[in-house]
Every structure is written in structure tokens, then in C-alpha cells.
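May I ask for whichever protein you like with its C-alpha cells?
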Amino acid sequence: MSASHDIPEGAEMDFSKRMSYSDYLRLDTILDAQTPLSKSPDELLFIIQHQTSELWMKLAVHEIRSAMDAISRDDLQPAFKMLTRVARIFEQLNSAWDVLRTMTPSEYTRFRDDLGQSSGFQSWQYRAIEYLAGNRNLAMLKPHEHAGVRSGPLEDILDRPSLYDEAIRLLARNGFDVGGEDSRTDWRNQRVTSDAVMEAWKIVYRDPERWWMLYELAEKLVDFEDYFRRWRFNHVTTVERIIGLKRGTGGTAGVSYLRRMLEVELFPELWKVRTEL
């Protein structure tokens, strides 16, 4: 028998009554979930790019929620690991744009009309990540109202403190004056940048040895937003490279809309404090 037909010693080969790799991962369901609407061979790339991004975002939502729970319990070491993982997830999402950018404007044009009004800004998981982090633009609930199964979890997120709110409440539990933000009960509306919160972070950054755990948390949050900003920037660049300045399929202004999103800050005091140090 040639080496190419050798069976690895001890390897299971009969899965008629056992769970296989494919069974565990439900690969039949996943691999049957791509249904191109055109005859363009490039549409499969477009579908897989966005489906895999949604899977990574599902993990990001899970990790952010877990980190928030850990911070609320003052259990910071696990939260650090989770937030590091979120940053790495966005690093992975950033790399995915490199694959999509291999598609040219001519290739995208062949199936763009088949997308109808569907657009990435309608992703409820992306919205969940923004809401969880603290960017609570209530107007962006509208695209999800038709699907209560999706708007329900978003409403639940808005009724609770955000990741950044939990970090600010942690500051208060450690004796910092956060200008009453720890007693705030209206979590739905966008918070306003606070001088008191910035002063608190300034104390942390000026004496990291004393406040090491808070200092480490601040840097984990900045890491997360750093990679998140890169993801947004790569999104803008990819869109402009493929469709130029045309309007987006979902009716947005396309590149100009995405450029405005680059100005949004998730953890504003953590960026502004750098100028004050």
C-alpha cells in the first residue's frame, strides 16, 4: 500500500454512529447558507466576506458582554483577557477587507443591483457592538423595527449601562469623583463628555503604579477602539475603491456617510486625556 493511502494510527474513520467534525460545527447548514442571486462569480466572495464578519461580530458581542459583567463584579483580570480578544477580533475583521478589495468596480457592478436595499449599516450585530460600547444613536434602531427578534436585544442593551459606563462606575467605586455619572439611570441616551470623568482618568494616568488595574483597563479600552477605528477606516477605503462616491445600496450617502462615522468616539475622555497629560 502506498503512503498516500495510509490511515493515521488510531484515527476514527466510521462516523455512522458518532459525531463528526462536520456534525459538531453544523457545516452543512453553514456551507449551504450562500445563495448568490446573480451569475457573477464574484458575488460569492461578497456573501462570504459579510457572513464571516457577522460570525466574528457575534463573538465580539459575547466577549464585550462578558467583559462588562466581569467589570461590574470588580473582576478585572478576566475582563482584560476578554477585551484583548475583542481587539484581536477587529484585527481579524480588518484583514478581511484585504480580501474584499481584490474585487474591482467592474466586478461589483455585475451584481450590485441584486442586493436591493440591503446594506451593512443594517447589521444589528454591528449596532449591538456600538450600543454595548456606548455609542447610543437611537435613530439607528429604525432599520431593525420590522424584525422584533432583532430590535428586542438592542432595546435590552439600551436599558443597561454600556461597557464604558461600567468602567466609569468602577472609577466611582474606587473613590473617584465622576460627576454623578455613577448614579445616572438614563442609559438609553448618548452620554455627554464629562470633565470630572476626564480628571479621574488623568489621576489614573499620572500615577499608573498606584492605579494599575484602572490604568490597564483604560488601555484595553483604547486598544479596542483603536482596532475599531481601523476597521471603520478600512471600510471607507474599501467602499471608495469599489464604488467611488456613489450612494450606498441602503440609501446612505456612501463614502461621505462613512467618513462622518470616523469622527465618532466611543471612549472620548480616554482620548482627550492624552492632550492633558
